[in-house]
Amino acid sequence: MALSDLRRDMVLSAIEEYDKLGRGAFLKAYGYGPARDYFLLYDGKRYDSKAIAGVAHRGVDGRPLRADDFSGGDATVARTLSDLGFEVTRPSDVIDGHSPGSLLQKILTLKTAASVSPGARKRHQPLALLWALGRAARRDDRLVPWPDASPALESLLREFGHPGDGLNAEFPVLRLYHHGLWDLPGHNDVPTASGSAAQSWMRQNQPLSGLRSWVHDLVADQPAIRAQIVLRLLDGYFHDVDHDKLLAATLLIPEPNAIRPALDEVTPPRDGTPTPTRRTVTTSRVIRDSALAEQVKLLHDYQCQICGTRLMTGRGPYAEGAHIRPLGMPHNGPDEPGNLLCLCPNHHVLFDGGTISISEDLVAVDVSTGKPITQLRLAEGHTPAPQHLAYHRRVFADPQI
Ligand SMILES: [Zn+2]
């Protein structure tokens, strides 16, 4: 195969197909994993560059390349696309302008060290970021004195880090500083994140630190961006951790007023109304979702993934976190982002009741007729897991399960 035969129009037609199918279906159809470092930027959107180049290759000899057909590395692909006049991000890129895109790019290119746990990455930086995201969500002070920040980070590392990776809170802060996400105002002699010199520098300076102000402002003002980062960190580093426990520990939990009880649950005022001798108890439609579901809803800005409705109530926007494979017996679905959809109450009921299922290509389907209803709406950073969708389809194809 020769990437050098690619032409710009072939790449554009692959981009068109990517747009039509959606990211998940496109990658799956051609056997690619999600890109980590190299993205093609086109028309304000990001595309997995290797998958695009591989599919574009169909224009050369009629055959799209699969991921393992490539002999060159990702950098070769990036160079080929750049040569064709496309913009491609690179791991070390500092993208001009402090945009959500440049922030997400930095999150995707964190340089984390290998953990002592086989196959895992150290969780120091992700935990420091989650801690800071929780502070930004609550609009706490951006900068925290080291004598306060250090024990808070250590306690997170103790509870959620890989055992044996160490509890040094200095290193993640220094790494994040050099990666452009963390601020140590007033210091321009910040050492690199290794060795005892780094630790003694922190001990001597006891600096104020926190997210860079543009990062802090962005994640404080834009809950959907914050949620996208939270879900990416959970997905990238914390597969075997109880997500709700971690979100609670980093205070990434719903605002108290967002979980205020529904009106029909509030005890009626004692205003002399005769107490009824019998009271009918009704079930409230307000579903108190987990902290994890709240992040998924924030990411979708409370828009239903099937119909796009965003219900506005007196208490703010409202949507429900729908588990694809139900929690609890006998289904035992996991509470993880890939097992959640953000749905309006109507579609939640129809989905849970098996009137609607989601196909492999992420199309909502009427189960009784098999007819497609609509393409599932996706948001960057959250993909429903194919195995959970398949489970949901199986359950309703065979109600004996
Ligand atoms: Zn809906």
Strand and helix layout:
Blueprint: H1 8-21, H2 23-30, E1 39-42, E2 45-48, H3 49-56, H4 58-61, H5 74-83, E3 87-88, H6 100-108, H7 124-137, E4 144-145, H8 146-160, H9 170-178, E5 182-183, H10 195-205, E6 208-211, H11 213-221, H12 223-237, H13 243-249, H14 291-299, E7 311-313, E8 316-318, E9 320-323, E10 340-343, H15 345-352, E11 356-358, E12 363-366, E13 372-375, H16 386-397
The site of zinc ion has 8 residues, from helix 15.
Note the main attributes of this structure.
401 residues; three-stranded antiparallel sheet; alpha+beta; 11% strand; 13 strands
| Low-confidence runs | 91-96, 264-269, 272-277
Overall average pLDDT: 85
Number of helices: 16
* Portion of residues within helices: 40-55%
Number of domains: 3
Q: Rg from C-alpha positions?
A: 24 Å
**Shape, principal axes of CA atoms:** globular
Distance between the termini: 47 Å
SSE order, one letter for each helix or strand? HHEEHHHEHHEHHEHEHHHHEEEEHEEEH
β-strand number: 13
Q: What proportion strand?
A: 5-15%
Bound small molecules, by name, code or SMILES, are: zinc ion
Strand order of the largest sheet: 2-1-3
Major sheet characteristics: 3 strands, antiparallel
Classify the secondary structure makeup into a structural class.
alpha+beta
InterPro entries: DNA-SBD_ScoMcrA (IPR058813), HNH_nuc (IPR003615), ScoMcrA_N (IPR058807)
Biased composition (Low complexity): 269-281
Organism: Sphaerisporangium siamense
Region (Disordered): 262-281
